Amino acid sequence: MARKDVYDDCPEGWTVGYSDVGHDGNRSKPNMCEKRENLCFNHRNGRHTFKPVTNRRDGDSCQKTISMPRPVRSKPWDVEYTDAKGFRQRAWFNLNI
Q1: CA dihedral of residues 21, 26, 28, 34 (deg, nearest 10)
Q2: Pairwise CA distance, residues 55 & 69, whole Å
């Protein structure tokens, strides 16, 4: 049976995120990639020195979630099958002609 998976994997170091989460906890499509980054740094000898700081002096968190649109597959449909040697394979294809 063919299966549709529109979104490709997020880049290494990123996790799947959602653009909208409803009041009842329902999520939208998994259309974002997210990661947490420490945005705080010190200036020491004219160079940026990153430190594992969790809060700045102004009380704002150094840890921020950044996001980007999740990559979209050019071939979003796939079918899994067992080949002649007994190995499971997956073939990707596009139904848009």
Answers
A1: 50
A2: 28
Name the strand (E) or helix (H) holding 92: strand 88-93
- Tell me the two tokens of residue 35: 């990661």
Beta-carbon neighbour count of residue 32 at 10 Å?
Answer: 20
List C-alpha distances in Å: 90 to 34, 57, 82.
27, 52, 9
Q: Over its length of 97 residues, how does the chain's per-residue pLDDT go in tens digits?
A: 888 989 999 999 999 998 876 666 666 788 999 998 877 665 555 555 555 555 555 556 677 888 999 999 999 999 999 999 999 999 999 987 6
Is the backbone of residue 35 left (phi > 0), alpha (psi -120 to 50) or beta?
beta
User: Distance between CA 57 and CA 37 in Å, rounded?
Assistant: 18
**End-to-end CA, the chain:** 20
Total residues found in the chain within this entry = 97
